[in-house]
């Protein structure tokens, strides 16, 4: 079996194992189900890694059903595995396998249904990443999302998970519908749903309202998935209530895939036809990314609920990833890719640590947990290290990612991008550091307990013997080390090469449509590990540490900018009110965001 | 006041989206223009290369198999999700079904309803099965027929015979049906990888246009999908009915 | 007139999208909200089938009609089936959630329900 056949197996294996595991939810022995699920995810990750290695020169294309193009036109659905796509699937597979190991507790309540849904999520994810066809992308986007909605609402005994899942499902379905509307419009215009072919046919015809509005709708749909402002509300809601292992998947790969898909669709379909307006599009994407980062960084600081804090931090980092992609150069995309890798492992480690806290202390509220975890210095050290890694401390992947984005920005004429990224990352890092110091070291005075905050104990879980947290801590440490490894220069080089391949529409088209690849893609090489960038990274970490210590020391509720005493018209107050938790408000925000994208596209991109 | 501001802002935004969309749609080719050549070539390929009379079935189960794979598993995931979300909580218990929902008695089923529904069960099931099996030859297909067969089962409930419905299609049967359908579909597609190196390749003999055993793997996949769709839809309805009629407890 | 007829399915699809969206934004009942989501989703069916239609095209099923008769686009028909099934799966999930929300909260007024706030 050649690597060529690996591509469909990355999603077919998890899906078929998911179906088989469902066979008798209570009749399959627990260990068998656990092992089978972990193995399925691991196999998917291994195949994806092999694909990443094998596709460095040209993307590997697998035609489903063997339907190669006939008569020069596309007939079937291609699965395009290039290093960037395969790398993303590998990350998802590794994280899924890692979190499934800690999901044994959920078996007791629902048998194998939990494993089934998690594997369906992974299968849908892999299919979504590799499909280079607009209609197929829609189907797998919905498949992945259905599993996600269900897993969010897993804890049906509590109030908040149900509304969280509802908010998630409704907003993301609207997003998927918008994606399909845009995709159908492109199909009507280009006569084909294939991304590469559509791009070629559109390029000849020129832009008009149809192309531009379709672009805006597709981007809206994907930005909803990526949880960018103002489509981000669902993420903080659902992230906070989903089972902890699932939060890892949501924060580390689910929202990042939205940006990946946006980049793929843009490069394949729209880059050439919109080509003349790169500056305008750059400006839009940078604005969306950085505003998202700034606003959610502030929201992150205001949280005392740990999972929600980490959720807002994830959104802020995706904002940074968007800004990196938004430069529309291969260097920016490389930086974004490295950033995603670094963030994935570190955030996963942080979530595992939160899971340990929840498991032993029955709470994820920073105020409730104040000082109670003093007996776990190792966990505390990891937690604070995670916060510093999020801020951009070397050698973690977010440091190199930020350095790449910074230099890409300077090359593209956006010299202040690096500083903006540093500020956003430092603020979210500081929030995590603050939480870590208060919980594990008891810094500062205990805060009054907020009576409105619900108890977050996952009380359907049987409390495991003390052996378990050691496994979890070791896994968290391993993930953190992996996060540090993502800063390696080898990964930087690989990412640059992968990004160069990804953004070269000719290479992609040649792989899919046949024809000769016109030369090798150009690759920008940057040195992420220069003295300047290291100093900046250490500076960011220092800022995060200092800010974290200061805010941890101040007594009163977390969010030490004195939010409780803020005047009724303070922006912070408005910000909190905006995040009302009401689905009808989110629907309105979605419309506003869509309207902004549609009108901006009509004005600036036509 | 805040509500009015909210609605007003929303209407402005909706106007922009709707207006932009409408304006863009004026650029679409008129409805009766010749369709995309991609689609039209599919018809020729389906008929000539795959000997399938129903081009839509050929597209679903062969040419664009991947979309259908996603669809099958989406329905599968939907049924699993419903089962997981409506599971019995600790404070609840399952009672024998009686004609009550919460505190309200349910109106007795009228005689007309009972008779009509009971008479329709067998025809619906048979027509559904026929639609599944002949999906590649004439109008129909796995999903469409599967939903119809599930509807036949639901008709038993509509005829006022909830207990019969639960006995007709017990949970284990539905679970098994779903598993066989979904795993079977994925399995047939995976065999394609082994046989020809491509997922979902059509590796069975193609036969002649119009005969029952034509079009290779297409009828096989259609039947598997029919099984899966029947099981999934019946499961979903059964779960709702069980939740309404049998699950009781004080949850608040 | 033919210009209007030529764009009618698309305009109606756009209207359905907007009507569903409006219904969701002003909804006071979760069942109503979920139904409006269905309406919003149904705009895609209409759009797909409208795009695939051709003048004097018959269904692309050749058991009764001779091979070679012009047929409408089977790809969007297949995708419409897929879309409907996926929509049904999401709807089933949403209704299950609404059921459980009603049990826990005693209300299905979306204005009264809040996820996490702040």
Describe this structure as you would to a colleague.
The complex is a heterotrimer of chains A (606), B (252) and C (118). Chain A has 606 residues and is an all-alpha fold. Chain A is built from 23 helices and two strands. Chain A has helices at 6-21, 30-54, 83-101, 104-110, 113-130, 134-152, 159-190, 195-205, 209-226, 233-241, 244-270, 278-301, 306-326, 330-361, 377-391, 397-411, 417-440, 467-485, 489-503, 505-513, 531-553, 571-578, 583-604; strands spanning 60-63, 78-81. In chain A, strands 1-2 form a two-stranded antiparallel sheet. The longest helix of chain A has 32 residues, at 159-190. Chain A is globular, with a radius of gyration of 23 Å. The relative contact order of chain A is 0.11. Chain B has 252 residues and is mainly α. Chain B has one domain. Helix content of chain B is 67%, strand content 4%. In chain B, strand 2 and strand 3 form a beta hairpin. In chain B, helix 3 (55-63) packs across helix 4 (65-85), helix 4 runs antiparallel to helix 8 (171-196) and helix 6 runs parallel beside helix 9 (218-245). The N and C termini of chain C lie far apart (53 Å). Chain C has three helices and no strands. The mean pLDDT of chain C is 89. Chain C has one domain (2-59, 68-105): Orthogonal Bundle (Helix Hairpins), CATH 1.10.287.3510. Chain C is elongated and about 60 Å long. Chain C is mostly helical. Chains A and C meet through helix 6, helix 7, helix 10 and helix 23 of A and helix 1, helix 2 and helix 3 of C.
């Amino acid at each position: 079996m050649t690597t060529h056949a690996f591509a469909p197996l990355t999603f077919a294996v998890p899906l078929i194992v998911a179906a088989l595991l469902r066979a008798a939810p209570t009749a399959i022995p627990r260990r068998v189900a656990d092992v089978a699920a972990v193995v399925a995810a691991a196999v998917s990750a291994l195949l994806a890694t092999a694909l990443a290695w094998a596709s460095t020169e040209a993307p590997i294309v697998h035609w489903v059903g063997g339907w190669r193009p006939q008569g020069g036109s596309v007939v079937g659905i291609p699965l395009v595995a290039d290093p960037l796509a395969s790398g993303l699937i590998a990350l998802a597979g590794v994280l899924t396998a890692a979190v499934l190991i800690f999901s044994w507790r959920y078996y007791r309540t629902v048998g194998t249904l939990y494993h089934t849904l998690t594997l369906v999520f992974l299968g849908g994810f892999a299919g979504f990443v590799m499909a280079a066809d607009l209609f197929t992308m829609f189907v797998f986007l919905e498949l992945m999302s259905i599993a996600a909605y269900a897993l969010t609402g897993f804890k049906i005994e509590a109030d908040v998970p149900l509304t969280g899942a509802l908010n998630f499902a409704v907003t993301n379905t609207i997003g998927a519908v918008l994606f399909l509307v845009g995709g159908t419009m492109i199909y009507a215009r280009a006569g084909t749903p294939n991304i590469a072919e559509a791009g070629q046919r559109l390029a000849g015809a020129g832009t008009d309202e149809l192309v531009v509005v379709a672009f805006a709708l597709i981007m809206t749909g994907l930005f909803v998935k990526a949880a960018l402002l103002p489509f981000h509300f669902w993420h903080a809601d659902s992230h906070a209530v989903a089972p902890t292992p699932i939060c890892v998947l949501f924060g580390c790969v689910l929202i990042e895939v939205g940006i990946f898909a946006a980049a793929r669709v843009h490069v394949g379909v729209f880059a050439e036809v919109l080509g003349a307006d790169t500056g305008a599009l750059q400006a839009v994407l940078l604005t969306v990314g950085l505003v998202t980062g700034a606003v959610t960084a502030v929201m992150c600081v205001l949280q005392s609920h740990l999972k929600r804090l980490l959720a807002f931090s994830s959104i802020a980092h995706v904002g940074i990833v968007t800004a990196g992609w938004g430069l529309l150069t291969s260097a920016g995309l490389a930086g974004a890719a490295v950033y995603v890798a670094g963030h994935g492992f570190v955030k996963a480690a942080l979530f595992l640590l939160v899971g340990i806290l929840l498991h032993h202390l029955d709470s994820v509220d920073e105020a409730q947990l104040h000082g109670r975890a003093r007996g776990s210095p190792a966990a505390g050290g990891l937690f604070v290290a995670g916060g510093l890694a999020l801020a951009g401390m070397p050698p973690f992947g977010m440091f190199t990612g930020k350095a790449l984005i910074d230099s890409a920005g300077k090359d593209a004429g956006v010299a202040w991008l690096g500083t903006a990224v540093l500020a956003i990352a430092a603020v979210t890092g500081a929030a995590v550091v603050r939480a870590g110091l208060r919980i594990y070291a008891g810094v500062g005075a205990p805060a009054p307990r907020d009576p409105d905050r619900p108890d977050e104990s996952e009380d359907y879980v049987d409390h495991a013997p003390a052996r378990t947290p050691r496994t979890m801590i070791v896994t968290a440490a391993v993930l953190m080390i992996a996060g540090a490894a993502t800063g390696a220069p080898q990964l930087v080089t690989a990412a640059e090469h992968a990004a160069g391949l990804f953004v070269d529409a000719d290479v992609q088209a040649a792989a899919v449509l046949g024809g000769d690849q016109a030369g090798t893609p150009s690759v920008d090489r940057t040195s992420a590990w220069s003295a300047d960038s290291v100093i900046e990274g250490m500076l960011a970490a220092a800022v995060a540490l200092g800010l974290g210590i200061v805010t941890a020391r101040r007594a009163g509720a977390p969010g030490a900018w004195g939010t409780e005493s803020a005047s009724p018209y303070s922006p912070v107050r408005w910000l909190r009110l905006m995040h009302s938790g009401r689905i009808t408000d989110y629907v309105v925000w979605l419309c506003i965001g869509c309207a902004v994208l549609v009108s901006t596209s009509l004005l600036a991109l036509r | 006041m805040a509500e009015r501001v909210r609605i007003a802002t929303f209407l402005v935004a909706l106007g922009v989206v709707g207006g932009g969309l409408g304006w863009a749609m004026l650029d679409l080719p008129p409805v009766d223009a010749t369709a995309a050549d991609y689609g039209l070539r599919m018809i020729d390929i389906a008929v000539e290369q795959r000997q399938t009379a129903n081009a839509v079935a050929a597209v679903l189960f062969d040419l664009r198999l991947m979309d259908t794979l996603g669809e099958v598993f989406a329905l599968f995931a939907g049924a699993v999700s419903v089962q997981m979300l409506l599971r019995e909580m600790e404070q609840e218990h399952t009672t024998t079904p009686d004609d009550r929902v919460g505190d309200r008695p349910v109106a007795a089923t009228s005689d007309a309803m009972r008779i009509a529904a009971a008479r329709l069960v067998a025809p619906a099931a048979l027509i559904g099965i026929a639609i599944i099996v002949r999906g590649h030859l004439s109008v129909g297909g796995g999903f469409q027929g599967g939903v119809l067969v599930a509807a036949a089962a639901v008709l038993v409930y509509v005829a006022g015979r909830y207990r019969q419905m639960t006995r007709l299609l017990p949970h284990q049967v539905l679970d098994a049906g779903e598993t066989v359908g979904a795993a079977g579909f994925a399995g047939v597609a995976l065999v394609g990888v082994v046989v020809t190196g491509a997922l979902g390749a059509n590796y069975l003999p193609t036969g002649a246009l119009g005969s029952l055993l034509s079009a290779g793997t297409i009828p096989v996949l259609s039947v598997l999908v029919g099984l899966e769709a029947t099981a999934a839809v019946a499961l979903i309805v059964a779960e709702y009915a069980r939740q309404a009629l049998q699950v009781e407890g004080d949850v608040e | 007139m033919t210009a209007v007829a030529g764009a009618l399915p698309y305009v109606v699809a756009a209207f359905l999208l907007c009507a569903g969206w409006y219904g969701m934004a002003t909804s006071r009942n979760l069942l109503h909200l979920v139904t409006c989501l269905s309406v919003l989703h149904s705009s895609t069916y209409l759009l797909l089938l409208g795009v695939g239609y051709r003048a004097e095209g018959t269904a692309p099923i050749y058991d009764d009609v001779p091979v070679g008769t012009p047929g409408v686009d089977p790809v969007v028909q297949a995708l419409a089936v897929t879309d409907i099934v996926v929509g049904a799966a999401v709807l089933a999930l949403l209704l299950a959630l609404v059921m459980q929300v009603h049990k826990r909260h005693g209300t299905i007024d979306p204005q009264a329900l809040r996820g996490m706030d702040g």
